[in-house]
Amino acid sequence: MDGKRLEGRVAYVLGGGSDGPARPGEALPMGNGRAIALRLAAEGALVVVGDKDLGRAQATVDHLDGAGLAVEVDAADPESCVAAVRAAVEFGDRLDVVVCNVGVSGREPVKVQSLDDWELASDVNVRSHWLTAQAALVPMLEQGRGCFAFVGSTAGVFSSRRSLSYEATKAAQLAVMRHVAVRYADRGIRSNAVVLGNIDSALVRREFGDGNGDARAAVVPMRREGRPEEAAGAVAFLVSDDAGYVTGQSLLVDGGVSAAWPIPPIVSQ
Fold this sequence. Notes:
Blueprint: E1 10-14, H1 32-42, E2 46-51, H2 54-62, E3 68-72, H3 78-92, E4 97-100, H4 115-143, E5 146-153, H5 164-184, E6 189-196, H6 202-208, H7 213-217, H8 228-239, E7 250-253
Parallel strand pairs: 1-2, 1-4, 2-3, 4-5, 5-6, 6-7
Helix pairs in contact: 1-8, 3-4, 4-5
């Protein structure tokens, strides 16, 4: 990276480890959170990486371009969410950027939606995000500036007919993003989301099969899955001064899926 748009800033990435198989030829399994942490560091930020597995967080930190800190955080535990933000502030003596990337998927449509699955999705996909934002707002408001980026999904905008809990909580996540944006816009706080489509991340390969990439790519007008690095590029833009007049927005990063109707055929005519 030639640009250092985030020089001197402290960033915290919730869900910055990676749990799943690596891509062919990839030494370090790449998920969205890990790619985001690496990109923010490459742009000059001091990065704190939070993950449920401290080893996965440390693996990300070990590959950062610059110093960083790994923290263990259980997104389903409210106290753990708040403690991780405090650790980030103590490490960097400020907090400029927060990326809420952590999430769990569900597999149950409405007819068989279980309470346990619903509650876990709500705790991780929504509650952890607003608790993290709530804790981070304290130092950000004292500084008079700060940026949030929420990593969402097209499932929060369009129904996949697959998982009620995932769709509902991803939609609620975007509501949290908008609330923060509007409530604190006049106090130097910006809040946006990247809404991801089919991304060839470690989590997707683990959850949906490492060999199903061609089938996932077939519904995308660009005829390929996105890369975690492309999601990271969108996040880096939104938290940089290049997006200084952008807040409350959901940036679709989906290869054109949301713009296409009907779903494009497998072979272009």
